Amino acid sequence: MRKGIWEQSNYQCSIIGACLSPAELKALAGQLGLALDPKAGGFHLHEAFVSLCMRDCPEAKAITRALNKKYPRTLRRFARAKDEAGLRGLWQEARQQGEIAGPYWALLSHPRASEGLRREAFGDVHMLSHSRLADSQAEAKRLHRLERGLEKMSEKYAKARAHYRARIRDLTRQNRAGQKTIWTLAKDLEGLRNRAKETGDTALRAENNALQRSLAVQSLGMIELKSAKKALEQRLGAYEKQMRHLQEELGAKDLEMRFLEGELARPALPPDCDNCEKAGTSECPGPLLCGKRILYVGGRVNLVRHYRDLVERHGGRFRHHDGGIENSQNLLPKLVSAADAVVCPLDCVSHNACLYVKESCKNEVKTLKLLKTSGLSSLAECLKELGAQPEPRRAR
Q1: Closest to 126 in 3D by CA, of 10, 258, 21, 23
Q2: SS3 breakdown of the chain: % helix, strand, coil, rounded to 5?
Q3: How far apart are CA 107 and CA 186, in angstroms?
Q4: Which of 2, 34, 81, 367 is the most buried (most CB within 10 A)?
């Protein structure tokens, strides 16, 4: 007989947090007719349900039924374990595959699970929450540094723009003054020419030549001023282009951060595609990939575990090849042959590895997805496209 949640002796908090989403808790509150403040946040909702689960009551029994209904296949799999060693093996296997929520409830509610094993599973879930919080904080700090860098660049850009605009105004005034001087000199020259024709005076001719030389110098200065003005306008345009690029990069990093936070906050359970008769059909109840084998070639080393987590959250099985940095390229044909689809980011993979993957996928007639960036959001969009192409059930 499985244990109810009220019998979990101080594990209720971790069970509610790991196995039920805030949306599911709100739905249960409505079904049970709980009088909760509609403006209360997720923590108050979580706290209310943990308090209810501390004692044997109709609400605690309803929550137990909801958990059993949510994870029936996982409960059946753990029910087949004959001893504690079998339960520990199933739990460790589930952790390696990224399955936490269902196996955690199945283990804690199992009648043959000792207190030591239950405590061990609680410790694993507790440390996993710390690890994911640390990852989220690292991304938040990186985003903060980018924002501060953008602020400094914006200040620098504003000062440079003001400086160059003031310089352009000065050059414009000098240009106008030069044009006025040229016009005056030309008028004087014309008058001297007329006088020289009338009198033929040598002194007037010398003055005329001097004015012509002065006019030439002024014309040359005019050309230099125009050239300087054009150069300043080009530099201002370069600053504006750099500013737009930084704003686009910050927007992309912000979307990446929001996506990562959403993925970390959302519990996921890949379906047991090996035993599901609906796998690969439009009636599949699980994530998009439904057991597809995804090979990721290249990418950023510090994101590989997040790539794996994202693929497995969507129900796929993940393999990685770094594109030839540490892994030999001779392994690629074998990995491509064993995969259902290959993903390759163009911004973080060698040219030779990319050509190698294209040739291997062509020879093996495999699906190849070339991504513009190695970010998690690009991979998520790619997985949605792959999930929209149902495949027949594969023999394993």
Answers
A1: 10
A2: 70, 5, 25
A3: 99
A4: 81
CA distance 232 to 224: 12
pLDDT band for position 155 (50/70/90)? Answer: confident
Residue 85 is part of which domain span? 5-113
Global pTM value: 0.37
Asked whether the predicted pLDDT for residue 2 surpasses 70, the reply is yes
Contact 288, 312 (CB under 8 A): no
Domain boundary at 63, 95, 113, which? 113
pLDDT confidence of 368, banded at 50, 70, 90? very high
Q: Which residue has the tokens 């050239």?
A: 227
Please indicate, yes or no, whether residues 220 and 280 belong to a single structural domain of this protein: no
Tally Cβ neighbours within 10 Å of residue 24: 16
**Bridge partners, 297 (sequence order):** 321
Dist CA 64 CA 263 (whole Å): 26
Q: How far apart are CA 275 and CA 269, in angstroms?
A: 15
Q: What's the number of domains the chain is made of?
A: 3
Dihedral sign from CA coordinates of 288, 292, 293, 297: negative
